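Quick note —
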Amino acid sequence: MRNRSLTNRRGFIKRLSTWFIGVSSFAVWGNRLTTAEAKESRSKVVVVHNPGASTITEVEYAKTYKVNASTVREMLENGVRTYTQKSDIGEAWKSLFPGISPGKTISIKINCIARQNNPRGLTSHPETVFGVIDGLRQMSFGGAPFPENNIVIWDRSDFELKKSGYTINRSTNGVRCFGTMYEISRDGRKTKGYNTDAMYSVNGVDQYLSDIVFQSDYIINMSLLKSHVFSGATLSLKNHYGSCSAPRKMHSGQCDPYIAELNNLEPIRAKQKLCICDGIFSIIRDGPMGGPQVAPNSLVFSQDPVALDTVATDLLIEHGASKWIKDHASHIKTAGSAPYHLGVSDPKRIDIIKI
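Predicted structure written out below.
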């Protein structure tokens, strides 16, 4: 009896110690998945395809690319309804933003870098971005729509936004749209528009994040379907190279693990609530610069950027990209692995819903 009591007492102490270790680990890691949880977790990706999403007209060897706004808006609504399993589009959008209220700010990080020196460069389509905004407008609060002025379209610079067909608006009326920088800066003024109160080391590279990240309560990440000569693919995860002050310093080693470390920064990780990859048009080789090469006519949705990038990489290959990008885009698997656990990269644990 005495030995049994001692054994029970020791077992209790051992269990208690284990419990304390667990609590300590939780306190340290916060909302991060444990290795075991990460191995068991699943993610959902919705892919919406409609061949009528774009029109390509060829006249005298020159091609004109058009995005059909009404079709894309319908694709967005179908994608969000399917992803959230809610039929009311306003309620579907609201469910993606925990604690949403009319006083919160939703920012939409788009991708306009290809218009820096190329008038035909493939950048975020206003038709797709404003289709998302139409959905956000349908969120109702006591019968009133979500305030337009609390929606911000943004990227690296005003210059690139304007080149991509957006109108700069920093006013208190309507949807706001502006860059982190008023203009592209290549000198010591590069930090203008970035929050210099918080410096981060991203795999040894000092970085500041855009002020807009800190001004946002929620972030929608709207990337493009592109290959990349350094990182294999540039999708949701790499889209945040437009959110930091010195992206050019993070391209060695196939951008790995820079991309994972950048996305793991708390302001990005905590605020990003939805990723949408605009694959109406795509660059399948020698990206990310240049104009459209193919028209997949697809939109990809997920709250998991790793799962989305895994599926979108397959979509690139399906439409003609070299299979080498799968291995070259090593940052995707890195982002899904320890110590980051930013999402699921194992295709067996990704539930793909195609519409």
